[in-house]
From TrEMBL:
Protein name in UniProt: Alpha/beta hydrolase
Species the sequence originates in: Flavobacterium aquariorum
Keyword Hydrolase: yes
Record InterPro entries: AB_hydrolase_fold, Esterase-like, Mycobacterial_A85_antigen, TPR-like_helical_dom_sf
Domain of life (superkingdom): Bacteria
Region annotation Disordered: where it falls in the sequence: 393-418
Keyword Thylakoid recorded: no
PANTHER family registered for this protein in UniProt: ENTEROCHELIN ESTERASE-RELATED, FERRI-BACILLIBACTIN ESTERASE BESA
Keyword set, alphabetical order: Hydrolase
GO terms, molecular function: hydrolase activity
């Protein structure tokens, strides 16, 4: 099973992302050319204006494919956003030990490791941001000594990265005490994932758990923290167990509306269903810099909550949002038609079903369906019955005749004014 999982990760890393580019970046800080692995999302060339979060991988030699596998699997189901991934090669000539070497007394970067820190912050990040379309949301990940080294970016007043994935970090002296204090007073939103396993060195485990205990007690609303302790897992297989949880923790807000979110956060609202949807996508854009159209499934979830709570007037606001997100589609007309149908105003429901018939199909909304709904509702219109008058005569009853209103593009809000 373990081998099958690794094969699946490799499949998704190859099929979902574009071919990995190997780049040699000339570093003035390191006085050498540094090998990088750059992997761009499959949609990168197709969407020339779209920007993507940035994931920097230390130990890129062996962390790249596991991360790409998870990202591709998540993107396939629209659970995870596409990300630009840059792996730093550290596997040759003991580079990772030199890059992350620390002073034995202070536990701080010293000599070459200071240069490596500056290489990432002053050369690598600016280079990637200049040459590739990235958002301002940045993640850094590492394993054992590189994981511990990534924490030093949190020692700055304005941390360079927004999210930290620390896989079995080999914590330097005093870090388990110093870092929780820093996280307590952090003033910008930070995601932090930490993991350890039975297969880790025992002293290392104890210090990680001490760090976790102190961090769990932090009440800072800017800190989004998660810890995992794996049983019967080695120091190396921990990587495959940790990566999915870490990425799903960081990008939880960007996921489609789930059954759990619907049941606990949406359908329980007394009002403001459309505002909830707007706020969700504002949060995605403000947190990750990702500007995506609202998912059709999310529209349908909000529609279902509105109908379940019989707050039919909110479908008007949902229709306005649909027209803004998908102006050429029939979605907005469908929401208005549904609103009038639920309110018992079948003539106007027919009007918007037929208006939608003339627009583009979207998801499971089709021209055949819109036409069929309109025809079905037309059967409910009142007809003029004949009643007997004087002997030998049939006289039509005087009653209101409901006529079909031709389709119109006038919004409901404007229609009401008239």
């Amino acid at each position: 099973m373990k081998h099958l999982f690794i094969v699946l990760l490799a499949f998704f890393s190859i099929s979902g992302y574009s071919q990995i580019k190997i780049i040699h970046l000339d570093s003035g800080k390191l006085q050498e050319k540094r090998e990088l692995y750059v992997s761009l999302p499959a949609s990168y060339e197709k969407n020339p204006t779209k920007r993507y979060p940035l994931l920097i991988l230390m130990d890129g030699d062996y962390l790249l494919n596991p991360f790409l596998g998870t990202l591709n699997y998540g993107a396939h189901w629209d659970d995870l956003p596409e990300v630009i991934v840059v792996g730093i090669s550290q596997g040759q000539n003991n580079k990772r030990s030199i890059d992350c070497g620390l002073d034995e007394v202070t536990g701080m970067p010293d000599g070459k490791s200071v240069d490596f820190f500056d290489f990432i912050s002053l050369e690598l990040i600016p280079f990637i941001q200049h040459d590739y379309r990235t958002t301002n949301f940045k993640i850094i990940a590492g394993h054992d000594i590189t994981a511990a080294f990534s924490n030093f970016f949190l020692y700055k007043d304005n941390p360079l990265f927004n999210a930290y994935i620390c896989l079995s970090p080999e914590l330097p002296v005093n870090m388990e005490d110093e870092l929780p204090d820093l996280l307590t007073s952090i003033k910008q939103p930070i995601f932090y994932y930490l993991s350890t396993a039975d297969g880790d060195n025992k002293k290392m485990q104890e210090r990680i758990k001490k760090f976790d205990s102190k961090t769990q007690a932090i009440k800072n609303p800017n800190l989004n923290y998660k810890f995992e302790n794996f049983n019967d897992v080695s120091h190396y297989s921990l990587v495959l167990h940790s990566i999915p949880t870490a990425l799903y923790q960081i990008f939880a807000a960007a996921q489609p509306i789930s059954v759990l979110e619907y049941d606990t956060k949406i359908v329980t609202l007394k009002e403001g269903y459309v505002d909830y949807l707007k706020n969700k996508y504002d949060l995605i854009e403000n947190s990750f810099g990702i500007k995506n159209p609202i998912r059709i499934t999310d529209f349908k979830a909000i529609e279902a909550a509105i109908i379940e709570n019989k707050d039919y007037n909110e479908l008007d606001a949902l229709a306005i949002l649909a027209d803004k997100s998908y102006p050429k589609s029939m979605l907005g007309d469908y929401e208005l038609a549904t609103m009038f149908e639920k309110k018992g105003d079948n003539p106007r429901a027919v009007r918007y079903y037929m208006s939608g018939f003339n627009k583009e199909e979207i998801a499971d909304l089709t021209k055949d369906m819109m036409f069929a709904k309109a025809e079905e509702l037309k059967k409910t219109f009142a007809k003029k019955p004949k009643i007997k008058g004087k002997v030998g005569q049939d006289v039509e009853a005087k009653q209101e005749v409901i006529e079909e209103t031709p389709a119109s593009d006038i919004p409901v809000s404007e229609e009401k004014k008239q």
